[in-house]
């Protein structure tokens, strides 16, 4: 087997918001070689001082070829690596096909190996629900197959990091926001400051993802032709989080989240209401829904009480944008039967990712199914449960309902506003699903 020596190997450490007491990992001794037969590029390196998440970038003549072309990597990369002599193999024929490059062409091939501290990981996290393996990627372009790949809607949970630590935003909505009842104090505006970054699910958890962890298919919208990528619903709080009461510190046991934690070794949970709203608004808490910027998608919605407004209908499944127009809540025809809904995939819920994402790449934040949060529900809105984004001192009401947000396929767009919240008694219902979060230390 012949190998060709490459050039320009470099090492880096990603440092953004690392805690002061964090031991900084270091990378040294980076070298490259290419197999002339398979064209596979082997990168050797040494990691020292602390475990780290390792990522790779490839350059030609000092210019990155783009992370979308570097995803096909085997070996010690894109996951937590222990210190020592390590290696990884990049397969250009898989992720950068039809490109001729080697030293004989006069092209200088380089590699940058970056070490990320465990408490300051890359932007995307992908948890394999079959093996339990967890991998990390620096950007959407680096995610193998792209974030819309069906893999991330069936057997892998894809998460996007929300950079919130040390930041504040205005939770709630102005009293004159279109679609809001002026006397509704659930949305009273108040500033929330974050002490942690967190990951938020790119998609709502799908039926196959739920089944991958629990082996159960409980959802109402269960037609065989497309149930796998529809959001899971019809699950109780106990099935989601494992407690018959709402105490946030109750054991998760054999619930979905409990099993997910066991499978991956990570403390996945439901988001706090402030985490959910900040992610939905993509950080912008100063707008009014209905002024164009509220959509965070470049669309110009004018009135969320206008059920046929195409701008709002482009953001997510709601009662007025089913493709066939056959299912409309509260219309003269009434709801379709269970048989009709399951026979027609354009009725009821939609496959996740069917509509526009917000500018942070999160799908179905408006519509499809309601998403429960950890916070206790209050008609007053501006309570400690709502202003504490991480429930570090949660209000422990065993009989209190939880907050759910995001709207559903059964409701019109005004209920899909980022600040809108609804009570949930924890009982299984076909309009309520789940989106997973992970708070970083």
Please explain how this structure is put together:
The chain has helices at 92-95, 207-214, 237-241, 256-264, 273-280, 310-313, 338-343, 384-387; strands at 3-5, 9-14, 26-35, 41-48, 52-60, 63-64, 73-75, 80-81, 84-90, 109-116, 124-128, 134-137, 156-162, 168-171, 190-193, 198-201, 371-376, 402-405, 421-424, 437-439. It is α+β, with helices and mostly antiparallel strands and 441 residues long. It has a five-stranded antiparallel sheet with strand order 1-3-4-9-7, with no helix packed on it. Strands 2, 5, 6, 8 and 10 form a five-stranded mixed sheet that branches. Strands 12-11-13-16-20 form a five-stranded antiparallel sheet, covered by helices on one side. A hairpin with a 2-residue loop joins strand 5 (52-60) and strand 6. The longest helix has 9 residues, at 256-264. It is elongated, with a radius of gyration of 23 Å. Mean pLDDT is 81; it is low at 1-6, 293-302, 323-336 and 382-394.
Task: List the SSEs and their pairings.
Blueprint: E1 3-5, E2 9-14, E3 26-35, E4 41-48, E5 52-60, E6 63-64, E7 73-75, E8 80-81, E9 84-90, H1 92-95, E10 109-116, E11 124-128, E12 134-137, E13 156-162, E14 168-171, E15 190-193, E16 198-201, H2 207-214, H3 237-241, H4 256-264, H5 273-280, H6 310-313, H7 338-343, E17 371-376, H8 384-387, E18 402-405, E19 421-424, E20 437-439
Parallel strand pairs: 2-10
Antiparallel strand pairs: 1-3, 3-4, 4-9, 5-6, 5-8, 5-10, 7-9, 11-12, 11-13, 13-16, 14-15, 16-20, 17-18, 18-19
